[in-house]
Amino acid sequence: MTGQTERLAIDGGRSIAPYKIPISRVRINRMERDLVDQVMRNGTLREGQLTKQFSEDFAKYSGAQYGSAVNSGTAALFLAYCAVFPKGSEVLVSNFTHVSTASMLVASGLKPKLVDTDEDTYLITCEAAEKSRSAATKGVVPVHLFGEPVQIRKISEFVSDYHLKVVYDAAQAHGALCDGTPVGFFGDASCYSFYPTKNMTTGEGGMVVTQDSGVFERIELLKNQGQSSKYWHTAIGYNFRMSEMQSALGRGQLQSLEEFNMKRRANAKKLSDAISKLEGLHPQEVPPNVFHVFHQYSLKVDLGRFKMDRDGIVAALEAENVSCGVHYPHALSQQPIFSQLPKTKLPNSEALSKMIFSIPVHPHLSEKELDWEIQALTKVVYAYYK
Ligand SMILES: Cc1ncc(COP(=O)(O)O)c(C=O)c1O
Question: What residues are in contact with ligand 1 under a 6 Å CB criterion?
Fold first, then answer.
């Protein structure tokens, strides 16, 4: 059924929200515009002092000693993998994540091995990692998906038991905590993205944070043409630098991050309270020891309990003017680029790709928009629950 047909089917065409509520909204405030404008006026546009300050401030905020700013989360992952994992080694990675978490393993000459996710948190667990691990495994990449940290204490025991290296994909987890500690404190490195929909943005951008000066220095070298001193190149490197304009915006956004995250959490709480009264929808489960920062508010549809599938529910919500996302419509094991990887059983993550969708939770939702969103969810569940 199309969205239009759904809308007519519910109530003759009148949507709950009078206009489309977007899944994300970017707002750049006056102070941030002024910071970028100052860079434009002073004329130093390439990486410089502001990038250094932004890297230091973000690393400190994330619980790490060093930060290396780059021009995307993808670049951050690529460089961290090059700096942390032994060359050519096998690395465990979540089967339910953004493509770059695993594609950058391939790009950096490593061998990804997919790990199934938990049904309710959508995150990898040590039990699942243990099932995928082999004698050749040298590393693991857990993902703090949608802003929810993995169980880091258990992962740390797992990596220490088997002498593995660990890089966390924290692209969606700015400000997230596990057992009260910022997630960037842990592991050999953590990688963030500052893409516009993220909890904070630099336009495009990313950051690797680490406690290890050796990893930091290697990443700084690789991101800047392998140049150890001016026009002296000691490694094959890249240009993955962040510009001063991006860093100026990042410094401004970092000041608003706490407030944005608290708003995301308050919005998520309202959504969860409302959804707990509805049949057939299951939000991402959140263990009590983590501080989730709700990059996305994701939930599962109880397939078989509705008169339509996930795409039908999404179309019905869209017809009510609530934009939805599907993160992600395919598990990595279902992607053509990973078809050569050894086939293993990954039932939870493959099933999840058919059930999951996201609804707006961003900090710029008004009270009214949040109410409309809840009314639309309620209306759709009442109309289509069997
Ligand atoms: C989990 C995850 N990892 C990595 C990335 C890549 O970040 P970027 O888009 O900044 O390259 C993203 C971006 O969406 C992501 O969500």
Answer: 72-74, 97-98, 100-101, 143, 169, 171-172, 193, 195, 206
